[in-house]
Amino acid sequence: MAQAHVLTGASNDPAAPAIRRIGRADLVRALAQGWDDFSAMPSHALFLCAIYPAIGILLAGLTLGFAIVPLLFPLAAGFALLGPFAALGLYELSRRREAGLTVGAADALDVLHSPSIGAILALGALLMVIFLVWLATANAIYVANFGYAAPASIGRFIDDVLFTRAGWALIVIGNGVGFLFAVVALAISVVSFPLLLDRDGGAAAALATSLRVVRANPAAMALWGLIVAALLFVGSLPFFLGLAVVLPVLGHATWHLYRAAVVPDPNPRPEYRPQPKGPRYAADFPAVLFPWVREDR
To answer: Based on the number of CB atoms within 10 Å of its own CB, is 157 exposed (0-12), middle (13-18) or buried (19 or more)?
Structure first.
């Protein structure tokens, strides 16, 4: 039963969310709204995303330290595949601000109370599998061109990649295959995670809706992918520090992109965060043991 809920959501026959056609103006508007959200709550966004530059620098250090320099670029590029899942807290902050609710850093953790948390984790696991397959594929491409021997030095590795036939093949094939992985990740996640925060439709319905949005808006989704890739590249310079701004803006913008591409649910579900309990007084005992009595008051 739990597995069925993860796949299909609250209903065994959920109605497919209606989608819209969007264009370049909608992408620009989503980015502007994402920046507006970031400007309204920068401390929250930075609190959530400051870890990403640190992770990037740590990955680079580990890569250099363990002599797997050829995987440095695949790690940095593949990390973007996990971005839609990592930005869950940002979607939640934008959702709450849009609804006129109070917003604090701790509210990003409301995703843990979502009825769709099982489906969210399932799609997150799918993205992780894609990320790991990408790393294995990138390593196989390198081995096919340079063999199993580790580079003698970083300078030698850069020289081999930029000025040899094998290096050119690595660049062309690696980027071509990486592009295919990015397309797959974008297609299955462009609106799926915001959708699961917004309604309990299940992982299968969320994934299918994301694919439908991409199929209905191929040009806009291709442009969105290019925008994301360009901003991530700019944000990674220098030393990934710009990601502390780029990631939250893109995360907030993705929520608004979802709002533009998917028609809102006519029967939105109530807030899923447990409401804080009011203060208890000694005079309430033993009535607190019988809550139905208190409900009649």
So the answer is: middle
Question: What is the dihedral sign for C-alpha 161, 162, 168, 171?
Answer: positive
Q: Which two tokens stand for residue 235?
A: 């944000």
Question: What is the residue extent of each domain of the chain?
Answer: 19-273
- Sequence-distant (6+) residues with CB within 8 A of 189 are 84, 85, 123, 127, 210
pLDDT digits (tens, 9 = 90+) for 23-78: 999 999 999 999 999 999 887 676 666 666 666 656 666 656 555 778 878 877 88
Alpha-carbon distance of 29 to 220, in angstroms, equals 13
DSSP annotation of 87: T
Paired tokens of 222? 């291709």
Read off the tokens for 270.
């109530």
CA-to-CA distance for 52 and 49, rounded, in angstroms? Answer: 6
Q: Which amino acid is at 286?
A: P
Distances (CA, A) of 87 to 37, 132, 261, 295: 14, 19, 18, 39
Is 289 strand, coil or helix?
helix
Contact yes or no for 188/126 (Cβ under 8 A): yes
Total-model pTM: 0.81
| Structure tokens belonging to residue 285 | 């005992």
289: which 2 tokens?
A: 């043991």
- 192: helix, coil or strand? helix
Phi/psi at 52 (5° precision): -65, -45
Q: Give per-residue burial for 25-49: e unless 16+ CB within 10 Å, then b.
A: ebbebbbebbebbbeebeebbbebb
Q: Which two tokens stand for residue 180?
A: 């295919």
Q: Which residue is associated with the tokens 């989608």?
A: 19
